[in-house]
Design a protein that fits this description.
Blueprint (H helix, E strand, L loop, with lengths): L12 H11 L13 H25 L1 H6 L2 H26 L10 H24 L5 H23 L4 H9 L1 H4 L2 H11 L4 H34 L5 H40 L5 H10 L7 H7 L9
């Protein structure tokens, strides 16, 4: 029999008993023939919600504003709403299992965490299928996040190591702290006041970067304390995968933060410039179409920026 994971030494006996009960389940997440009814039902629910939002959002946003948005961007706005609602639900489950951060494991907290991970995984896979197009950094972000969370949850069972449950819990913050960013992008599509957008974009850029940097720091701490010194081929494979995933995800987050911050700066420049007459505006657009001189030009010239996040 292989040696116990190093993390066992940090567990009280009562927690260890709870953990063993959960880990002794006969069906494990990595089993190829495990038919997860709740996952497939969740995907169908997301599909139904997306269809419903296509009916509700025109009334909520105003039909004229909604029809001014391209069909592709309407799908994007639907995804923004789903991102906000589903990740909030996942965040609530994450907070309900917050005792994992204190290295306290119960059957209930592990179920809560697994439910949160499942919600985010369903959402990201649904978005990859539902959207007409997505930029490379966002595709990489979704794939890396789903993969590393799935791997961590699988290793909880294959290695019977609860430290991976904490890794998955911390990694979940990569998906559950982006609500303000999606609110900002949704309002951007509706072309609200640039000054308001500037504030939202700047605050969301700082908030998301801080939360995700803390998430990465937490996973690195868990790896260094409990996983780095463990023995076994799966641990060594995880070391490599974890390093690559961490670097890749950090790169996508830095890029996303940069894009959101730049959008805020453009809103500032647009709002601070005086309004021009229609003739002056037309002359400016014909000579320098990429300039950002007015609030109207702000939306025209920066229209491609949200696609870097999409």
């Amino acid at each position: 029999m292989s040696a116990s994971p190093p993390s066992y030494a940090s567990l009280p006996f009562s927690t260890l008993l709870e953990l063993m009960t959960k880990l002794d389940e006969h069906v494990q997440p990595q089993h190829p023939t495990w038919f997860s009814i709740n996952t497939f039902a969740g995907m169908l629910i997301l599909y139904a919600l997306a269809k419903l939002l296509h009916l509700v959002l025109p009334r909520a946003c105003g039909r004229r504003r909604w029809e001014a948005v391209s069909p592709t961007n309407r799908k994007t706005m639907v995804i923004y709403v789903l991102q906000i609602t589903v990740t909030l639900a996942a965040f609530a489950l994450q907070m309900a299992s917050a005792s994992l951060a204190k290295f306290e494991f119960t059957a209930r907290t592990l179920e809560m965490e697994r439910a949160g991970v499942t919600l985010v995984a369903m959402l990201y896979v649904f978005e990859l299928v539902y959207r007409d197009s997505m930029r490379g950094p966002m595709i990489a972000h979704h794939i890396i996040t789903v993969f590393i969370m799935s791997l961590a949850m699988t290793l909880v069972y294959t290695e019977r190591d609860p430290s991976f449950a904490l890794t998955g819990w911390l990694w979940l913050f990569q998906a559950t702290t982006e609500q303000l960013t999606f609110v900002s992008l949704f309002l951007y599509r509706l072309k609200i006041n640039p000054r308001t957008l500037r504030i939202l974009f700047r605050v969301s850029a700082v908030q998301a970067f801080a939360c995700k940097a803390a998430s990465i720091a937490g996973t690195v701490y868990v790896w260094a304390k409990w996983q780095r010194t463990a023995t076994g081929s799966r641990y060594r494979a995880f070391d490599v995968i974890f390093f690559v995933a961490t670097v890749g995800l950090a790169a996508t987050q830095v890029w996303g933060t940069y894009v959101v911050w730049i959008m805020g700066n453009r809103g500032l420049r647009a709002d601070e410039q005086p309004r021009m007459s229609p003739a002056e505006s037309q002359e400016l657009q014909s000579s320098t179409p990429c300039s950002v001189k007015t609030a109207d030009n702000y939306f025209m010239a920066s229209d491609r920026l949200p696609e870097c996040l999409a």
